C-alpha cells in the first residue's frame, strides 16, 4: 500500500501533482484520518489511504505507469540486499507494452547493483486495479515475477 504514496511523491516530483492540486481539497488531516479505513489483522491496525475516496484524484496509477515521461525515483519500499542495505542505484523503468482493455502494463526495469558494479535488467508486469469504492485505478497488482536479462 505504500506504493501509492510513492506514486504520489513521484507525481509531485515529475510536476504532475502541484501544490495547487493539494490545496483543492477541503479535508483536514483529522478528517482524512477519520475517513481512512482501518483493517484489523493479527496484530497492528493499518490505516490505508488507498481506501479514502477523497484522495482518489491524487492516485491515478494507470496514468503514471503508462507515461513516457522520465521521473526521479527518490524513495522506494523494498531493499535488494538480504541485510536490508540499499545496494541499487540508477533505477529506471521503460514501458514496453500496455493493454488498455485489460489494464495491463509491461515494463523493462534496469538498475545498477553497487556490490557487483553490474547493470541488471528485468521485465515486470502489472495489472492496474481500483481500490474498493474507487473509480480511479490506483493499485498495481503484480502479475509476474521478474525475468532477469543478462
TrEMBL record:
Transmembrane segments: none
Highest taxon listed in the record's lineage: Eukaryota
Record flagged with keyword Signal: yes
Region (Disordered): 20-46
GO molecular function, a single term: amine binding
InterPro entries found in the cross-reference section: Calycin (IPR012674), Tick_his-bd (IPR002970)
Signal peptide: 1-22
Biased composition (Low complexity): 25-39
Protein name (record): Putative lipocalin
Lineage per the UniProt record: Eukaryota, Metazoa, Ecdysozoa, Arthropoda, Chelicerata
